[in-house]
Amino acid sequence: MSSLLNTSRPPVFCPGCSHERITRSLDKAFQNMKLSGGQIAVVTDIGCSGLFDTFFHTHAFHGLHGRALTYAAGIKMAQPGLNVIVTMGDGGLGIGGAHILAACRRNLNLTLLILDNFNFGMTGGQFSATTPSEAHVGSGFLNQLERPMDVCQVAISAGAAYVTRCSGYSKHLTEEIEAAIRFNGFSLIDIWGICPGRYTKQNRLTPQMITEMLSKLPSITGPVANNSRKEYNEHYRELSAGLEPVLPPKKVAVKFRPPEPGRQEVVILGSAGQRIITAGEILCIAGLTAGLRTTQKNDYNITVLRGHSISELILSPEKIGFTGIESSSVIIALSQEGVDRRKGLFGRLDDHALILKPPEINTPMSPAKIHLMDFKSQRIKPKDWALAALSVMAKLNKVIHNDMLRSALGFKFKDNTLASAMDLVERVDIT
Amino acid sequence: MPYALMEGNEAIAWAAAESGCRFFAGYPITPATTIFNSMLKILPPLGGICIQGEDEIASIGYCLGASMAGLKTMTATSGPGISLYSEHISFAIGSEIPIVIVDVQRLGPSTGSATRGADGDIQFLRWGSSGGLPVIVLVPVDVSDCYTLTLHAFNLAEQFRCPVFIASNKEIAMTRENIDIDSLEKPAIIDRTSPPTNHPFLPFEVAADRVVPYFLPIGGDILVRQTSSTHGPDGYITTDYDNIAKNQERLHKKLASGISRFSFHETILAENADTLLLAYGVSARAARDVYRKQKNRNRPVSLLILKTLWPVPDALIRETARKFKRVVVVEMNLGQYVREVQRILPDKSVEFIGQMDGRLINPRQIEEAIYHV
Ligand code: SF4
Predict the structure, then answer these.
(1) Which of A194, A264, B82, B314 is the most buried (most CB within 10 A)?
(2) So what CATH class is A18-240?
(3) Does the distance separating the beta carbons of B44 and A70 come in below 8 Å?
(4) Which atom of ligand 1 is nearest to the CA of A121?
(5) Pairwise CB contact (< 8 Å): B4 & A248
(6) Cα(B80)–Cα(B83) distance, rounded to whole angstroms?
(7) How far does the centroid of ligand 1 lie from the alpha carbon of residue A89, in Å?
């Protein structure tokens, strides 16, 4: 195969920049693999390493600083057959740290070349996540305060299945790059290089010194045995292949007439864990069985098993506008914190309204009728009170009737859950 | 008529699937999480991809990559996430990457109140990205709108190669409501346009009779370049002032040129009304109640409900408002879109009703404000 280098756009790196060597090695690796430009996407980060996409006749994607791995992942998931190569500097490594960790954990078949030259070249030689503390860089004394990170160790800890650290001057650079591309999973090569434009203006660093520095570090080359596992895309397809297609929520057949004409507003005032939202949904479905329009507006805090839980429900023969409660037909008061959260509602009740509550809940004065529900003596558990209250409403023919409620339960639940819900609504005593 | 029961977020997910969306990436955030949950159920069995990003920046980044590789993509978040999306929103605008972005607004600023609604991001969606180029923002009033506007959002994103926002609100997104998907008025599904084969392909070249470049996916036989840098038709950096100016101008005009086709709205006129209520989103529901209640009384009001907020339908607003002495803008914030209305109607009395405490604006408040009772 011939070179994929773009002859009309030759590399424009500073004389002596190791990026130039890496560009040519990458091209060699493509040639050795007999890849055509259409089989490759070069995704580049920001900085001098971000110029790579322009030097090749391949698909190319150049984006924002630190984010190259995110685009690469999207491309690879959409086009699993493509060889996706990401070039990024040590600057992108710092700003995109979360994405590197995610790529290591995910093991999607991408190849990340970190062009590690210990500083931000393009913007003036500021320190990066790999700048030695003793180096003289464009960030004054600030790099003396921070320690450089070992991206290879970090990658291995994060689960990378293939990690190599090597010199940009290595005789085997092409083979290293080729092996990384061939690896079926996420591969990362940390390539140490020299930036004569910035870094070596103030610091001494030669290919020889890089070799010596690397020789003092534990060698990290290729597959990481402990992290060996399935490639993400293949694994994703494998797990999703067995999934049954889902269908949109079914329509509820209209079978009944509602017990009362006109718009009905119901509020369930309770606490998290009392299944308030589910009861609200069942009431809505019951409304749909009688051809009514319905809305369910819920109010709760971000805490999961604590705090108030309130469901505001409207059942109406007409299209529903405002989804808040103006004047309730029924208030189901199941917890004191729920009631306290909506005290204002009670002032707007008229004498047609009905309050359903267990005896121990206090509600503000109002002209509404109060129906006490002594669920404790009926041995109904608090988590079932909301559904039991719907049964009380149905038995009183208020807003819904028994057939509507039973039909809604049949729509919502199946098997054992349905049987016990049916049993519960049957059992509720309203005397 | 039989209905299903669905919340706004579910309706968006189902409509996305119907539009052909096969890639979703998102990061869990109340009140947008149920879009992610729904997409995770819907997409994998369809051969689609649903990814939980490591953060919001990554989530939209995945979408941009997948979109350029040929898939219809969507992401969803709320205020804190939309803030993080910003760098990628401007990328999608400037580099013409189709994507649907759902902002399920919560009460802000900042982390604000995760489980309370607001329409506080309306100006942010328009201006919260570098470069200041226009975007499309659609705003649903109810669950049925969530469905149909999502279909439109994908069509617009594909046609114009741009990000399209659905500015939802916790109060629609997480409110369950009756919906009959079969009876909705749905647009035909539109896909991005491939170039004619008799012409060499340049990724950002615009044919003389078009305002948008043709699309080919990264990964196909023909090489495609994408770049966030200021680029010429070939997708390489350009420093040519004339070229740059021409392209920026086009990015501005390409949406403006289509306004009349996608300024979704409802106009409900009452006879003898001297006041026009202008509302959008969940507040339009309260406004509609006011219209209904007052239409047979002695001071009826007319109603303009906007479902496309950006680009601003200047002509529509000017034309609709012409016969009215007074225009009252209702929105769930402390005054954002009213600025546009005031700009368009400098000679009219433009009043404002707003609220930002997590509660819905109710019909009584609107009546009190317009009748000064
Ligand atoms: S600034 Fe440094 S990294 Fe950039 S091209 Fe010059 S030598 Fe290479």
Answers:
(1) B82
(2) alpha beta
(3) no
(4) 1
(5) yes
(6) 5
(7) 11
Residue A85 Cα to ligand 1 middle (Å): 20
A vs B: CB pairs below 8 A: 223
Q: A254 vs B2: CB contact, 8 Å cut-off?
A: yes
Q: CATH 3.40.50.920 in chain B: give the residue spans.
A: 264-371
Tokens of A49: 């390493």
B123-180 residue pLDDT tens: 999 999 999 999 999 999 999 999 999 999 999 999 999 999 999 999 999 999 999 9
In angstroms, the CA A88 to CA A130 distance is: 13
Which are the contacts of B304, defined by CB distance < 8 A and separation ≥ 6? Answer: B265, B266, B267, B268, B276, B277, B278, B279, B316, B317, B320, B321
**Tokens, residue B195:** 């170039």
B57, two tokens: 């920046």
The protein residue whose alpha carbon is closest to atom 8 in ligand 1 is: A17
Pairing relation of β-strands A40-44 and A83-89? parallel
Q: Are B36 and B76 in contact (CB under 8 A)?
A: yes
**Which pTM value belongs to this model?**
0.97
Query: Computed over its alpha carbons, how large is the radius of gyration of chain A?
Result: 33
Q: Is B44's pLDDT higher than 70?
A: yes
The full set of domain ranges for chain A reads 18-240, 264-427
Determine the Cα–Cα distance for residues A54 and A19; give it in Å rounded to an integer: 13
**Per-residue pLDDT tens digits for A389-413:** 999 999 999 999 999 999 999 999 9
CA distance A413 to chain B (A): 15
CATH architecture for the domain at A264-427:
3-Layer(aba) Sandwich (3.40)
Task: Give Cα A74 distance to the centre of its chain.
Answer: 14
Separation of A155 CA from ligand 1 center, angstroms?
25
Q: Is B235 left (phi over 0), alpha (psi -120 to 50) or beta?
A: left
C-alpha A397: how far from chain center: 45
pLDDT less than 70: residues of chain A: none
Rounded-to-integer distance, Cα B64 and Cα A74, Å: 7
- What pLDDT shows up at residue B373? 65
Q: What is the C-alpha to C-alpha distance for residues B213 and B206, in angstroms, rounded to an integer?
A: 5
Q: Which CATH number is associated with domain B1-262? A: 3.40.50.970
- CATH T-level fold of B264-371: Rossmann fold (3.40.50)
Buried b (16+ CB within 10 A) or exposed e, A388-425: bbbbbbbbbebbbbbbbbbbbbebbbeeeeeeebeebb
DSSP class of residue A379 equals T
**Rounded to whole angstroms, how far apart are CA atoms B148 and B52?**
26
